[in-house]
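User: Please fill in residues for this 316-position structure.
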């Protein structure tokens, strides 16, 4: 059962990345295929501590940071979001004279993405499947809204004492039709209901809004990414609700009954002038019995309304 759940989670992350046109997640770190360099991670991110945190208690210095989830040096770790308490008051963001809560800014960013003609999404997902196994997924997607997506995905699995195993595949989705091409093979047309057959709700993916599962969104500061001024917004993530929206009802029940610990949070960087997302970082921890699945997803967005190349396997 644990293997089934781990594979289902991996499929979720991959397919969610292919549906990036409907969300700002990134889907979704391997060294075999470096992540895109045209959108570097912020290096001078200002730090804003939650206003409700007492200043009299210093941060402990004798507790080392966890080492079971490697973090790339070019992406800042997600800052802890504000505590979930009644007195929590998010720092407002003033846009064109209107005072908005940070969550409202994220919602506006999602709406902006859906109004685009095209964009590209690059994401890296690192999963610690146990003390001896790590899996890294690198995915680059071109999106032509509203319903065309082309993703190239490379998956590398590293197990203790073994050589890393790498596989590559391509997926094209045009409307309701999906094609898959494994490395070195021809395009294979998949059934239109392939998402439902794999235990994932296509309808939920199409309508997914990550903001629906966010809590305690707060402005951490402002910085610059690739010459663009951005807001840096941290948040908690309701992981149980997030996965329940992706999984079919039967698998969702199995997953949620087995999971003992579900926690997560992240950071989004949103352009100040155009309110388009530039980067995202999401961390999640899923505990099942005596095992723990830890994931870190980094995503970068760009090439807004620029031409993209999406192959049509039906014409090849």
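Assistant: Residues filled in for all 316 positions:
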């Amino acid at each position: 059962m644990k293997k089934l759940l781990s594979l289902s989670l991996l499929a979720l992350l991959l397919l969610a990345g292919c549906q990036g046109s409907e969300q700002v997640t990134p889907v979704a770190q391997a060294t075999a295929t470096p992540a895109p360099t045209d959108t570097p991670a912020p290096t001078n991110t200002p730090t804003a501590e939650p206003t409700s945190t007492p200043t009299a208690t210093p941060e402990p210095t004798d507790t080392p940071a966890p080492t079971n989830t490697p973090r790339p040096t070019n992406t800042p770790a997600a800052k802890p979001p504000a505590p979930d308490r009644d007195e929590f008051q998010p720092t407002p963001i003033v846009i064109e004279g209107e005072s908005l809560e940070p969550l409202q800014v994220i919602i506006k960013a999602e709406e902006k993405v859906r109004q685009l003609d095209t964009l590209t999404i690059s994401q890296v997902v690192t999963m610690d499947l146990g003390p001896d196994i790590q899996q890294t997924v690198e995915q680059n997607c071109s999106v032509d809204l509203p319903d065309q997506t082309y993703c190239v995905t490379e998956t590398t699995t590293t197990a203790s004492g073994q050589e890393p195993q790498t596989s590559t595949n391509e997926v094209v989705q045009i409307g309701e039709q999906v094609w898959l091409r494994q490395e070195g093979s021809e395009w294979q047309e998949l059934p239109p209901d392939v998402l439902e057959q794999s235990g994932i709700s296509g309808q939920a993916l199409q309508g997914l809004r990550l903001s629906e599962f966010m809590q305690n969104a707060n402005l951490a500061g402002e910085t610059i990414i690739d010459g663009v001024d951005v807001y840096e917004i941290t948040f908690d993530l309701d992981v149980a609700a997030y996965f329940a929206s992706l999984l079919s009802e039967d698998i969702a029940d199995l997953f949620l009954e087995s999971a003992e610990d579900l926690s997560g949070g992240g950071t989004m960087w949103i352009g100040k002038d155009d309110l388009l997302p530039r980067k995202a970082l999401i961390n999640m921890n899923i505990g099942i019995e005596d095992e723990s699945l830890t994931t870190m997803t980094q995503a970068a967005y760009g090439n807004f309304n620029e031409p993209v190349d999406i192959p049509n396997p039906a014409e090849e």
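For context: The chain is about 20% helix and 40% strand.
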